[in-house]
Write a structure and sequence with these properties.
The protein is of the alpha/beta class. Helix content is 58%, strand content 9%. It is built from 13 helices and 5 strands. The protein has a 5-stranded mixed beta sheet, with helices on both faces. The radius of gyration is 24 Å and the shape is elongated.
């Protein structure tokens, strides 16, 4: 079992596409993609799919070897072994949850502790035996169990990738935009501002203006979760900026933002850097650089930036 767990981790660490997903080069390419108004998910989805396929292959190996090592009770015996391991690797932790058709987050939402796992597994086993017995497909239980594990792995990996990609891309995007416009971090703008007596919520960025500072919130949110973008309107204050991926055609979010004096900048099918420049120039005390418009110019502007701008 230890060999297979190590194999999985080596797959994820050594596969070229996965290893480069969050490199400086990749983050620069994604930033260019977004500044050209394109959907960054078309790029990151390839990385996620690769990770999923590798995980499915690993799970198939796990189940095949578990059936050899443990016999008919492979699920129960594997769970007992996983529960007994101290200092579990991320792969071992995930496998423990996937084996019973859960993710760590789902188990918390259901109120299922690790002490409940053996009973939870037993309930699944009884249910599947009854279901497949009534269908005269008893031999398919192991395949169904494997698919259940793969389903849990899919939820886990997609959720994790979405969060990690979003956080790193948001920081890379706003930094690149402001540097290209000629602003300097620590002098003209600041990132990840913590709450204080004046502002009761954290802010992604603040930009110095002639009369103080304006706040910027970034959310790479698409039309499926536009309520998240709406929630940010109340955070940034007048002349604040919200940069987002896309909202639906029937949304009234622009009316809400206008009432609050907030600038909304959509990335998709747009020129977000041009819009940001147009909004900030009357507010800041310095003359901003003209934003690049053509694809080649955007590419050159981003890739000429220091690698340190794209580091976590």
């Amino acid at each position: 079992m230890d060999y297979l767990l190590e194999t999985y981790e080596n797959w994820l660490n050594n596969h070229i596409m996965l290893a480069d997903a969050f490199s400086v080069e990749s983050l620069k390419a994604l930033t260019v993609h977004m500044l050209m108004g394109r959907n960054y998910r078309l790029i990151t989805e390839n990385n996620t799919k690769s990770k999923l396929m590798l995980t499915y292959l690993w799970l198939m190996d796990i189940v095949q070897n578990a059936k050899i090592d443990y016999g008919d009770n492979w699920q129960k015996d594997m769970l007992n072994d996983l529960l007994s391991i101290r200092g579990k690797t991320p792969a071992q932790k995930n496998l423990m949850y996937w084996l019973i058709g859960l993710t760590a987050k789902t188990s918390v939402n259901l109120g299922i502790s690790k002490e409940d796992f053996p009973e939870f597994l037993n309930d699944i086993s009884l249910y599947l035996n009854q279901l497949f017995s009534s269908m005269n497909r008893q031999e398919d239980i192991d395949n169904a169990w494997l698919l259940m594990m793969a389903g849990s792995a899919t939820l886990n990996i997609r959720g994790s990738d979405k969060s990690r990609i979003g956080k790193q891309l948001e920081k890379a995007l706003i930094r690149a935009c402001l540097y290209i416009l000629g602003l300097e971090e620590g002098n003209n703008f600041w990132l990840n501002i913590q709450r204080d007596n004046e502002v009761d919520r954290e802010t992604d960025a603040e930009i110095a203006t002639q009369r103080g500072r304006v706040r910027v919130e970034i959310g790479l949110i698409s039309s499926g979760n536009q309520e998240v973008t709406e929630d940010k309107i109340g955070r940034v204050g007048r002349n604040g900026v919200i940069i987002f991926d896309k909202v639906g055609s029937r949304t009234r979010i622009y009316d809400t933002a206008e009432r609050h004096g907030v600038k909304l900048i959509q990335i998709r099918n747009n020129q977000p850097l041009v819009e940001l420049h147009r909004h900030l120039q009357p507010l800041v005390a310095t003359e901003l650089n003209a934003p690049p418009v053509l694809g080649n110019d955007i590419h050159d502007a981003v890739f000429s930036l220091s690698d340190e701008i794209f580091l976590p």
